[in-house]
Structure formats: structure tokens, C-alpha cells
């Protein structure tokens, strides 16, 4: 049976499509938004990766060395009294000669102000400690380099 030409062809509605350049620009805009959204979603994961890396490094140091001490972070400091001074300053943040001598006495059993002063001079000379003035008395603190190295174990650098 033959059909008439009008019956065999359905009416087609062709949607108006944007020009190819407009399509490319729209796709580019959508991709930019998607990239920004993915970047924002991945930022916390990158921070968690950095934290977990530091945690594992810290745990490894604790297992390997039995704790975190100045000899772990600064193996080049060979003198045990100087290491104890660094450990005391890490804990106290700042201290005068009398306070450091008392600290060393409690840690080591004995200490003299003369030896503590001599070791502090050596630590200052090698860039581990520095003198600051609090009132009329000098106090000793760890240098920024030492504090940065110590804190790099815990806080990610920016």
C-alpha cells in the first residue's frame, strides 16, 4: 500500500541551538566552576594527608629513638649538658641562669652556674640559643631556627 507523502513524514521540531562558539564558552564556564568546586573539596584532603604524614614521621621517631629529645632533632649537639639545656628551654620557653641550673640539677643530679653559663655561650655561638633581657636580668631562649625545626614536626609549614 502506498502512502501519501504527507503521512510518511512526521513534522520535526528542530530546537534552536546556540552557535558553536557560545557552546564552547558555556562548557568552559561550567568546567571552571567544576574545577573550583573540586579544588575546594580536595583542599581538606590535602591538609589531612600532610597531617597524617607528619604524624607517621613523629611516630617513627618515637619508636626509633624512644622519645623526642634534642639529640633526635639536633644530633650534631654532642655534649649531654648542652642537650639538657636545649630540652629545658624547649619545655620552659625561656629561663635565666638560675632557673636553668635548677632544672639541670633536677635532671642530672648536679649542675653549676659556671658550667651552665659556659654551655649557653656555646649554644649561642652555634645558633641554638639567644639572650633576651627581661627587666634587669638576661633570659635565654631557643632561636627561631630551633623553634621552627621543633615545631615542623607538629605544624605544617605554609
Question: Could you characterize the architecture of this molecule?
Answer:
This protein has 158 residues and is mostly helical. The protein has helices at 5-8, 20-65, 70-73, 80-92, 97-108, 113-125, 144-151; strands spanning 94-95, 129-134, 137-142. It is 63% helix and 9% strand.
- Mean pLDDT, to the nearest integer, reads 81
Number of discrete domains: 2
CATH class of the largest domain: Mainly Alpha
User: CATH topology of the largest domain, what is it called?
Assistant: Arc Repressor Mutant, subunit A
CATH homologous superfamily descriptor of the largest domain: Winged helix-like DNA-binding domain superfamily/Winged helix DNA-binding domain
Largest sheet: 3 strands, antiparallel
Question: What strand line-up does the widest sheet have?
Answer: 1-3-2
How are helices and strands ordered from N to C?
HHHHEHHEEH
Using DSSP, what is the number of strands? 3
Question: What's the Cα radius of gyration?
Answer: 34 Å
Keywords:
single chain; 158 residues; three-stranded antiparallel sheet; Arc Repressor Mutant, subunit A
